[in-house]
């Protein structure tokens, strides 16, 4: 039996790095229709066989496309942003590792806003940096106070506000109603400056169907995925996919859960808590006291998206025997599951406890960008044929 991978966390204060996982739910007794989908790969970015290394990807982590169709990829090793045109041809790179203006120590998340600016959140420097997509430095803004929610992912939504995705670790010290709201939630609405929190919503225990310590701690690493619907609503799926997808709607200036739909999960349990078998993840926490939690993720969300016609698409990695398979669920505009498909070309070993293939982004033309780290790290760009 292989030794479980260990994630060691030092958490001396609010808002430090942690990890997430979700609970279980009885699977749908009916097998959904099998769809015949194919990922039509148009090109790849990041691996070349000649001596040109300038635009190779060492550790791609975040990806966005701008209004002109440029592809911007954050590389966590070189700590820069590499820019490609819509055909995947390298244009330029900017940024770099450090603490100076325009530099980053870690690119935790990024977004292209409605002014076509690139906004980066640098977790280790605890600040937001804005660039034009031609690499001009526009501003550097420190995060706002101890209760600021450092985003794991964020997007600008209707009205210009930003929605942050992050599950902070609750040490039990929350005293005020505001603190309790922050620590219990995974979605956090911020104003146009990104610095002022307006509301936190999406109770993690309810959405993940579990208050297990392993589940809640793992949420700091993978809180899940969200995507804005055409009508301004928000779709959300927990990182550990328990077969449920959630829709949130703004009502009377407050965001609330408005719908819950059923998807498809291969395993009966989304996570095996306390399992020490191959592929286990071990979480070690040192504050306020030393504790260890262990488990295996059987079902992991890789991304949720709406197509141009408002159909819903969900990618997940599902443990199936000795392999983890990439599953795609297709829902109609009423939220009903139409069918599922497996992309067998994207399978990887069951003992890999973190997803080796990540569905990371979709542009306005319904083109998908998948980060593939199974061998040389590359980005695969293409469309789903058969929808």
SSE layout and pairing:
Blueprint: E1 5-9, E2 38-45, E3 60-65, E4 71-75, E5 80-84, E6 90-95, E7 107-112, E8 117-122, E9 127-132, E10 137-142, E11 153-156, E12 162-165, H1 177-184, E13 185-190, E14 197-203, H2 204-208, H3 213-218, E15 225-228, E16 234-237, E17 244-251, E18 254-262, E19 271-273, E20 281-285, E21 291-297, E22 299-306, E23 312-320, E24 323-331, E25 337-349, E26 357-362, E27 368-372, E28 378-385
Parallel strand pairs: 1-20
Antiparallel strand pairs: 2-28, 3-4, 4-5, 5-6, 7-8, 8-9, 9-10, 11-12, 12-13, 13-14, 15-16, 16-17, 17-18, 19-21, 20-21, 22-23, 23-24, 24-25, 26-27, 27-28
Largest sheet: 4 strands, mixed
The second-level CATH architecture is 6 Propeller
The pLDDT mean sits at 86
Low-confidence blocks of residues? 1-29
In terms of structural class, how would the helical and strand content be classed? mainly beta
The CATH homologous superfamily is called TolB, C-terminal domain
Q: Which of globular, elongated, flat, extended, rod-shaped describes the shape?
A: globular
Strand content: over 45%
Radius of gyration: 20 Å
What is the name of the CATH class? Mainly Beta
- Helix % is under 10%
Straight-line N-to-C gap: 41 Å
Give a brief description:
The chain has 387 residues and is mainly beta.
How would you describe this protein?
With 387 residues, the protein is mainly beta. A hairpin with a 4-residue loop joins strand 9 and strand 10. It is globular, with a radius of gyration of 20 Å. The N and C termini lie far apart (41 Å).
């Amino acid at each position: 039996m292989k030794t479980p991978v260990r994630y060691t966390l030092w958490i001396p204060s609010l808002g430090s790095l942690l990890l997430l996982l979700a609970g279980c739910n009885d699977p749908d007794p009916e097998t959904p229709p099998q769809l015949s989908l194919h990922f039509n790969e148009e090109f790849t970015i990041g691996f070349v066989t000649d001596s040109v290394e300038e635009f190779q990807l060492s550790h791609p982590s975040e990806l966005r496309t701008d209004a002109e169709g440029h592809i911007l990829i954050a590389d966590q090793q070189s700590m820069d942003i590499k820019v490609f045109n819509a055909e995947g041809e390298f244009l330029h790179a900017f940024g770099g590792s450090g603490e100076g203006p325009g530099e980053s120590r870690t690119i935790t998340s990024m977004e292209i806003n409605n002014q076509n600016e690139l906004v980066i959140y640098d977790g280790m420097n605890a600040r937001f940096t804005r660039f034009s997509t031609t690499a001009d430095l526009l501003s550097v803004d420190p995060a706002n106070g101890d209760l600021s929610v450092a985003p794991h992912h964020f997007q600008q939504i209707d009205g210009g506000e930003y929605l942050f995705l992050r599950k902070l670790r609750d040490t039990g010290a929350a005293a005020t109603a505001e603190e309790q709201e922050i620590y219990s939630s995974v979605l956090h609405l911020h104003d146009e400056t990104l610095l002022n929190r307006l509301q936190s919503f999406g109770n993690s225990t309810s959405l993940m169907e579990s208050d297990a310590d392993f589940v809640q701690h793992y949420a700091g690493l993978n809180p899940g995925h969200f995507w804005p619907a055409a009508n301004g609503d928000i779709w959300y799926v927990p990182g550990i996919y328990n077969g449920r997808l959630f829709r949130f709607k703004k009502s009377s200036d407050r965001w609330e859960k408005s719908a819950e739909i059923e998807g498809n999960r291969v395993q009966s349990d989304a996570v095996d808590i306390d399992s020490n078998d191959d592929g286990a993840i071990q979480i070690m926490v040192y504050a306020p006291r030393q504790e260890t939690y262990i488990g295996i993720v059987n079902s992991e969300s890789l991304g949720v998206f709406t197509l141009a016609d408002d159909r819903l698409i969900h990618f997940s990695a599902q443990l199936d025997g000795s392999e983890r398979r990439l599953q795609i669920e297709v829902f109609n505009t009423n939220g009903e599951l139409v069918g599922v498909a497996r992309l067998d070309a994207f399978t990887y070993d069951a003992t890999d406890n973190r997803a080796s293939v990540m569905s990371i982004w979709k542009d306005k033309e319904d083109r998908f960008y998948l980060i593939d780290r199974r061998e040389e790290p590359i980005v695969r760009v293409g469309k789903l044929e058969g929808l």
